[in-house]
Design a protein that fits this description.
The structure holds two protein chains of two kinds. In chain A, 40% of the residues lie in helices and 16% in strands. Chain A is an alpha/beta fold. By secondary structure, chain B is α/β, with parallel strands linked by helices. Chain B folds into five domains: 6-218, Spore Coat Polysaccharide Biosynthesis Protein SpsA, Chain A; 252-357, no CATH class; 364-521, Immunoglobulin-like (Sandwich), CATH 2.60.40; 560-720, CDP-glycerol glycerophosphotransferase, N-terminal domain (Rossmann fold, 3-Layer(aba) Sandwich), CATH 3.40.50.11820; 724-910, Rossmann fold, CATH 3.40.50. Helix content of chain B is 36%, strand content 21%. Classes of the chains: A alpha/beta, B alpha/beta. At the A-B interface, helix 6 of A face helix 4, strand 10 and helix 21 of B. Chain B: It is a peripheral membrane protein.
């Protein structure tokens, strides 16, 4: 245990579905990998397989990145019924099983090379299948779930979590509220860890432009349709304001049609996907989020870091955790476009309120700064060693 | 040695295995920095040896503290352990209790994160034999979320209930600073210690985690004295700190958590113990707890405690019986000034039980068995029945019989009692059961339940025989004389007390021939081939059930049945998902019949077909015949939606009559639906796309419902609701002929002309998860007491719910929830009371007063969303409290004068197309034309 007492030199494995997918969890994994590495830990990022649609990662990475399979693996299944008798099927399943075993062996070898006191952080529930099969002697295994309890409850991952996570040393949700929900569901090895705010812009938004911004994929989950309904109530009252919608996605055509149908073409700008989020926020005075489901939304944190007050649907514990309703932003009951419109009217109609909330938002959101979150992780590592 | 994070102090009991389990649960924690301190008083050698073994196995983690001779009692032992603890936090366990595997890590994490002196989680205890565990019910509210409290009023259960008897840890320095130790003069010191710790702690963190399991089951009554003493001391401490509210709450909790379970236990306690407990309670209870603490309990509960305090063991037992069997009369009630008292000796008002309103045939009477002995081959039974309020008609007309009823069967034997003596408020009965009068078949007719039936004038009251174990005893077997062949399988009757404390007779095989036969039959019915056959039958039944499951039906329907050819002129009707024969589908059905149009009507019904028309084919919803009818129908007519999973065949025309105009947001306007994900919303959209015609009553419907369900204009039929034709006709009749005579329904329900009919029809509130009845927002009893003289209240629960109504004076309250057609009730009602139900839009057509009783208007409108402001456009006065409602109804004329104009405007606006000929117009539009070929 002498090695592990120096908190700066831990072997940390971060393990996600893919090594480099374009998506929130993978981005989070590389953010944390960078952070852990700059604080002296030895980091190794892992994925079940490499992704097709890739995240842009810095070159050189500075830490190893390994994919266990060359492509999305097929899970070996137990054959039932007459299929048991077909040699071809049996051969195929045996090959899948051997494939998996090879990956597990490779993983065990990596784990064995780590010094005692190392930590395996499994960011999603799927890779836990490999970790459970591998040899983790001397390591602490930490599972994670990057979505709200309600969202998991409604899909197949609920069963996976109930199957895989009772056996890990500890696992983490995004907020205390989600953790409480899981505890009430009978899981007692669960805690929580918020996401870290990656970047605090030097200068906050001046909040002078009469612009409301929305940033997110144009996907049903982000509820842009409800945002347009809400904006239809706001636009007539605030003729000089513009709604800027950043993002692209499969629903774009439908949403644009809806926008035209509501007669909002004059006040809505469709700006497509942006890589310069701080720039987009610098040109806005109010941020709006109308999602149907969220985990711990980075977009809200970024808006607050830029000093832009938010109006959002209170759709998940993560949202309530980030935005303190009435203090540094305004929340509306989920799905209630009328209420969201009301919040937007309040923020757009009152510059003093906007400024006060924007200043408080920028200050408050720093409780999720990288330093704070890193400290929380170190505390957790310490606790799990006791 | 490093300071451990936790010291777990375990007091050793007398069971070495239990102690080991406890210690190992602490040593096997996911948190390893734990020391275990075992404290014992050297009385039990086995335990001592096991403890030494544990120390040997974990020398640096387990210590044994031996108490000196003079230290006695659990409190002193615990204090010794606390003194010896080294850890930063301490937690106490009794032998046998176990820590949940992650308990200490969760406590430590919460303590570190929140800097709390005390962290508490849930605990469970064994609930009787079988290993099932349970926590107290109030724990759920206390530990719903992780939270930190500094003010005890925010988490009153911590001191008001016995929350802190287990499952919490204390920071040791805080404990030592406040010199927190157990009071060694108290037998139940842990109750007192937890409360003291809560009072001393600066910050308390509550976590939802389970911490301690396997606590010993509660045995109410063993130490009432000790509990009262501990509670009394806590009360003093709370009062000293000016926390009198918490003290009162604690006393109330003591009544419900300790005294009521104690009283319930009286049903099974033997006489001696009952008497002793009652005497104990009588001597001490009122000294510690003021009688006001139980004064506001419901009547049966209140009487349990009152009689306990009065020291009456039999009275408590009777009251406990009333708790276990609600609706049973257990005491000779006494009438006083229009109210009803429990008994002459205990004049406590129990009118709320409603016994005074029960007619003779609805009476359930307490019937205590006083004698049960076997004599000369017969069973001698005697008992006493409580007779309340002179309910019994003259004694001469009453026949008293003992009924023996085969459990799980239909067979009944009725034996007249030999003797029935009426003395005062009790009826004594006596009977010798002659086995010759019980010609049972034997073998398959094993258990017979008993009850006494009192018959007078063709009506019967029932009195189940309450039997205590000690009265029934063991030695009252008597020979049985089954019919011819039965004698080979049974020869003896054994009376016994059931788990529900009633007398039953069991037919047994005691002598050799019968025992042999039984053994043989048991062998034949249980040997391997029959077991296998049974298994096979089970598997086959499962397979058959799977073939009839919903998912198979949907697949077969959508793939095969929809392709069946159309049956011309066939219509499938459904109203409210088959729960009623009513609404617009009924009106259309009747119009079709009246015009003699040749159509083949099929009605779908949910559970029971009673009340559905004889002149139509009836099919149960979701049955194969239902699916067949739907697949072949030319028309579907319903008011809510045929099952969403079923596709509409290409040849079918779907008329959606809908079930009411909208006040609350519906369909895609509803928040719940808007937050659903795409597949869920697409499913609703597909279901709605099946509609070919949608009836609307006004422009309001077009703006709201049609938009909410995204219905194109060409599907809308602005013909009004056929169900409302009856209302328009009724209004015309009112205007020309007046309100009387009332519709024939009034006579059927027994409503006299001089009584005003008030219909209370609240809206749907969502199905409760536990399947229990909804609590009505209107206190029905209060209503009938205040207005019962001149009013009769008809209660109609929503068709998806059911209401549980109290017993009220006859002729003041009627439950009409089961009535099929609401519009008949509307025609009958003189005034409507509702909250947000669409019924108001229909009733307004009658131009009779409407009162909107909406105690939660703002909350409801905010949560559910609404299409207009009810206060602004309401067709009648909007009242928010019950008193206001009763005042309004008492003086309705005055209250309503200002509203007549608004109501007419309301009716005109929301029912613009309801002109009284809607059914005719709909039939003209759809059915009168010659049948056409495929429409889509």
């Amino acid at each position: 245990m002498t090695v592990a007492t120096d908190p700066r030199e831990r072997d940390i494995f971060l393990f996600s579905n893919t090594t480099d997918e374009l998506g929130g969890v993978t981005a989070w994994m590389h953010q944390m990998a960078r952070l852990f590495r700059t604080h002296g830990h030895r980091v190794h990022t892992l994925g079940v397989h490499p992704a097709e649609l890739k995240l842009t990662l810095p070159e050189p990475l500075g830490y190893p990145m390994t994919a266990l399979h060359p492509a999305h693996p097929t899970a070996p299944r137990r054959l039932t019924g007459p299929r048991r008798l077909r040699p071809a099927e049996r051969r195929r399943e045996a090959a899948h099983a051997a494939d998996k075993q090879r990956a597990v062996d490779a993983l065990s070898a990596l784990f064995r090379a780590a010094r005692p006191g190392g930590v395996v952080i499994v960011t999603q529930v799927w890779p836990m299948e490999w970790v459970r099969a591998a040899d983790t002697t001397g390591l602490t295994v930490i599972g994670m779930s990057h979505e709200s309890y309600a969202y998991t409850r409604a899909c197949h991952r609920y069963r996976w979590i109930k199957q895989n996570y009772p056996h890990v040393d500890h696992w983490l949700t995004l907020t205390q509220e989600d953790a409480d929900d899981w505890i009430a569901d009978g899981m007692h090895n669960v805690g929580f860890m918020p996401n870290a705010l990656a970047h605090l812009p030097e200068v906050p938004s001046p909040r002078t432009a009469k612009v409301v911004a929305s940033i997110g994929r144009l996907h049903d989950q982000k509820g842009i349709d409800m945002l347009l309904d809400a904006w239809a109530l706001v636009a007539p009252e605030r003729p000089d304001w513009t709604l800027r919608i950043y993002g692209a996605g499969v629903e774009e055509a439908d949403l644009r049609a809806q926008c035209t149908g509501l007669g909002l073409d004059g006040s809505v700008r469709w700006l497509g996907r942006t890589d310069d989020v701080p720039g987009a926020l610098a040109g806005a005075s109010v941020f709006v989020q109308s999602s149907r489901g969220e985990g711990f939304p980075l977009a809200l944190m970024e808006a607050m870091a830029s000093g832009v007050p938010c109006a959002a649907f209170d759709c998940a514990p993560g949202v309530r955790e980030i935005v303190r309703d009435g203090e540094d932003g305004l929340l509306a009951p989920p799905g209630d476009s009328g209420a969201l419109a009301d919040r937007l009217l309040r923020l757009t109609g009152n510059p003093r309120l906007r400024d006060a909330m924007g200043v408080r938002a920028r200050k408050n959101v720093q409780r999720f700064s990288e330093g704070e979150i890193l400290r929380a992780w170190e505390e957790l590592f310490g606790l799990l060693e006791l | 040695m490093n300071t451990p994070e936790f010291s777990v102090v375990v007091t050793l009991g007398d069971d070495p295995d239990a102690m080991t389990a406890t210690a190992e649960s602490a040593l096997g924690q996911s948190l390893r920095s734990v020391e275990v301190v075992l404290v014992g008083d050297r009385t039990d050698a086995d335990v001592r040896r096991t403890a030494t073994l544990l120390t040997a196995r974990h020398p640096d983690r387990v210590r044994v503290i031996d108490a000196p001779q003079e230290v006695r009692g659990a409190a002193a032992l615990r204090n010794l352990g606390l003194d010896a603890a080294h850890g930063r936090h301490v937690l106490l366990l009794d032998s046998g209790e176990r820590l949940h595997a992650h308990a200490l890590r969760n406590l430590l994490q919460a303590a570190r994160r929140t800097d709390a002196d005390l962290v508490a989680g849930r605990w469970t205890r064994l609930a009787g034999p079988g290993g099932k565990q349970q926590g107290p019910p109030w724990q759920d509210a206390l530990h719903a979320r992780t939270r930190t409290v500094t003010d005890l009023a925010k988490a009153p259960e911590l001191v008001a209930r016995d929350a802190l008897v287990s499952g919490f840890c204390l920071r040791r320095d805080a404990m030592d600073r406040h010199a927190l130790r157990h009071a060694e003069d108290l037998a139940r010191s842990e109750v007192h210690f937890g409360v003291r710790a809560a009072l001393a702690a600066r910050r308390i963190t509550l976590v939802p985690n389970l911490i301690v399991t396997h606590r010993a089951p509660v045995d109410h009554g063993t130490d009432l004295h000790a509990l009262l003493e501990a509670s009394g001391r806590i009360g003093l401490q709370l009062a000293r700190r000016d926390l009198t509210e918490l003290r009162d709450a604690r006393e109330r909790a003591f009544v419900s958590d300790q005294l009521l379970p104690l009283a319930r236990g009286f049903l099974r306690l033997p006489r001696g113990e009952r008497a002793e407990l009652a005497a104990q309670a009588h001597a001490r209870l009122t000294a510690h707890i003021a009688p006001e603490r139980w004064a506001d309990l419901p009547p049966a509960e209140r009487m349990c405690v009152t009689l306990l305090a009065a020291g009456e063991p039999d009275g408590v037992q009777a009251a406990a019986y009333a708790l276990a069997r609600p609706g049973t009369v257990v005491s000779p009630l006494v009438e006083r000034d229009g109210r009803v008292d429990w008994s002459a000796a205990h004049p406590s008002d129990v009118s709320e039980l409603g016994h005074q309103h029960r007619p003779f045939e609805a009476l359930r009477l307490f019937n205590r068995l006083t004698r049960c002995t076997a004599e000369a081959g017969r069973l001698d039974l005697a008992g006493e029945i409580v007779l309340p309020l002179d309910k019994l008609p003259a004694a001469t007309d009453v026949t008293v019989r003992l009924e023996l009823r085969l459990r799980g069967g239909k067979k009944v034997f009725r034996l007249p009692v030999d003797e029935a003596v009426h003395h005062g408020e009790r009826l004594g009965w006596r009977l010798r059961v002659d086995p010759a009068l019980l010609p049972v078949r034997g073998m398959s007719e094993r258990i017979w339940d008993t009850r006494i039936v009192l018959t007078a004038g063709g009506e019967s009251a029932l009195a189940e025989v309450f039997a205590e174990r000690e009265v029934v005893g063991k030695g009252s077997r008597f020979p049985a004389r089954p019919r011819l062949f039965g004698r080979f399988s049974a020869d003896t009757w054994l009376p016994y007390a059931t788990a529900g404390h009633h007398l039953a007779l069991e037919l047994q095989a005691c002598r050799r021939p019968a025992r042999t036969i039984r053994r043989l039959t048991t062998y034949v019915t249980h040997f391997r081939p029959t077991r296998k056959a049974r298994q096979l039958r089970g598997t086959l039944r499962q397979k058959r059930d799977r073939l009839h499951s919903g998912s198979v039906k949907v697949r077969v329907y959508n793939r095969l049945l929809v392709k069946l050819p159309v049956r011309r002129r066939s219509v499938v009707f459904e109203a409210h998902m088959g729960k009623a024969y009513g609404d617009s589908p009924r009106a259309i059905h009747e119009e079709l019949r009246a015009r003699g149009l040749k159509v083949r009507s099929t009605w779908s019904h949910a559970a029971s077909p009673t009340g559905f028309p004889d002149d139509a084919r009836l099919v149960r919803r979701w049955s194969w015949r239902y699916l067949w009818a739907l697949a072949r129908a030319e028309f579907w007519v319903d008011n809510q939606g045929f099952p969403h999973a079923l596709d509409k065949p290409a040849h079918t025309t779907y008329l959606q009559t809908w079930h009411g105009s909208a006040y609350k947001r519906m369909g895609f306007d509803e928040t719940r639906v808007r937050m659903q994900n795409t597949p869920q919303r697409a499913k609703l959209q597909r279901a709605v796309d099946r509609f070919d015609h949608f009836l609307v009553r006004s422009e309001h419907d077009v703006r709201t419902l049609a938009r909410a369900y995204r219905l194109p204009e060409k599907k809308l039929l602005p013909l009004g609701y056929p169900r409302n034709d009856r209302l328009v006709a009724a209004r015309e009749r009112d205007e020309t002929e007046g309100r009387f005579p009332r519709p024939e329904l009034a006579a059927r329900l027994g409503i006299p002309d001089h009584q005003k009919t008030v219909l209370y029809a609240p809206t749907f509130r969502g199905t409760p998860k536990d399947g229990r009845a909804h609590q009505l927002r209107l206190d029905v009893r209060k209503f009938t007491e205040r207005l019962g003289d001149g009013h009769v209240l008809l209660v109609r629960a929503h068709y998806m719910e059911r209401a549980e109504l109290p017993v009220c004076a006859p002729g003041t309250l009627l439950d009409v929830s089961g009535h099929h057609d609401v519009s008949e009730l509307l025609c009958l009602a003189d005034v409507l009371v509702t909250d947000y139900s669409s019924i108001m839009f229909d009733y307004a057509l009658l131009d009779r007063p409407i009162v909107l009783f909406a105690p939660d208007l703002d909350a409801y409108a905010a949560e559910r969303g609404s299409y207009f402001d009810l206060r602004e456009r309401a067709p009648g006065p909007v009242v928010e409290t019950e008193d206001e409602l009763l005042r309004t109804l008492a003086d309705l004329k005055r209250a309503d004068t200002g509203h007549a104009e608004r109501r007419r405007a309301f009716a005109a606006e929301f029912g613009a197309h309801d002109r009284g000929d809607s059914a005719r117009a709909v039939v003209d539009a759809l059915f009168a034309r010659p049948a056409r070929r495929n429409r889509t």
